Amino acid sequence: MAAKEPRMHVLHREGKLGLGTAYITGFKWALERGYDYVFEMDADFSHDPGHLKEFLKSIAHADLVLGSRYLNGKVTVVNWPMGRLLLSYCANIYARWITGLRIWDLTGGFKCFRRHVLETIDLSRVRSNGYAFQIEMSVRHGAKGSP
């Protein structure tokens, strides 16, 4: 796909080093190249790429745009087994309780950051991997006093 689409870039890493380190590598790559907006999106189609246009509209008035699989009492994920969905939903309830953040989908990987948000987070200090990475990034962003 990247060979046919010049706006798409692929970073190859040696082996599986964890979700968090993959995102950090991508964030640093984008920052080094001067991108104003940095998107994060899971590749398992648990997020609809059709929403990217809405993200671009929303980021014009925000520092961070978060997509959610759980909004208005509805679940938008259709390709997960029920056990995974329940685990994710309950983990988000627990994470909201522990962190005090009012984000419905703290473990979601569908986001758009303004460059300055990532620049204010010391990416070298982010330690979490897996779903905890998503929670840590939201906590670190919230800790900067952002809404």
Strand proportion: 5-15%
Number of strands: 5
- Mean residue pLDDT: 87
Rg (C-alpha, Å): 15 Å
Query: Any idea what the shape is?
Result: globular
- How would a textbook summarize the main sheet? 3 strands, antiparallel
The number of helices is 5
Stretches where pLDDT falls below 50 for ≥5 residues?
none
Label the structural class: alpha+beta
Question: TL;DR?
Answer:
The chain is an alpha+beta fold. Helices cover 40% and strands 12% of the residues.
Keywords, please?
alpha+beta; 5 strands; three-stranded antiparallel β-sheet
Description:
The chain has a three-stranded antiparallel beta sheet with strand order 1-5-2, sandwiched between helices. A two-stranded antiparallel ribbon has the order 3-4. It has one domain. A hairpin with a 2-residue loop joins strand 3 and strand 4. With about 150 residues, it is α+β, with helices and mostly antiparallel strands. It is about 40% helix and about 10% strand. It is globular, with a radius of gyration of 15 Å. The chain starts with 18 loop residues before the first helix and ends with a helix.
Topology:
Layout: H1 19-32, E1 37-41, H2 52-59, E2 64-66, E3 70-71, E4 74-75, H3 82-99, E5 110-114, H4 115-120, H5 131-143
Antiparallel strand pairs: 1-5, 2-5, 3-4
